[in-house]
Amino acid sequence: MNKIQRPEEPNIIKHSMLQYLLDSKMPEFFRYTETSIYKNLPIHDKWYIMWVNARACYDLVKSKHTELSICTLAAFEVDCIKKLCTFEHSGRGQNIFEMALHPNYRDHYWNGIESVRTLLNYATIGLTATKKQNEELSNGIKTSGGIKKIIVPTNELYSDIKLVYKESGAFYRVPYDPTDMMSEQMKKDLNEYDRLPEKELNWWI
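Predicted structure:
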């Protein structure tokens, strides 16, 4: 079986929302993180403010689905019915946007409308999995007291999950790396971000 190819960049997110993020929402957040007010907040509060801003991006894509030609075997075995299954943004949208807000990477994503468009549109890519698998996959990241820990890097998320082609049910035998479905810049940055030392990952400490 051939390796699935990265889809052409979807064009899903409305231009007006991209412009709002670029011109207003994120510049306001970046300015606030430089103030003494933010810097003197408790660690949990600083993390939560970052999380809320990343969530604002994720909320724009969570109902947007660019579905690949594969799904998990467990989902296929129950006919991908909605009661038991869900669309899984396989790159972990929330984590993608938290990466894009990190001081090491933010200049790659908030420097113009096209970079914002690419960031959000590629975050819509994913596949169908069972709701139980969705819960298990979410355990790859833990946050406690405002300290984030990435237990399973994005590119290793599906290493132990059997995948099949949706149409035929034939096994997809090529290791599935969700970062292969992103732009080259996103792939590079996310693989680095997922492996940052704890203090650097949690830049708000």
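Summary: The two ends are 46 Å apart (CA to CA).
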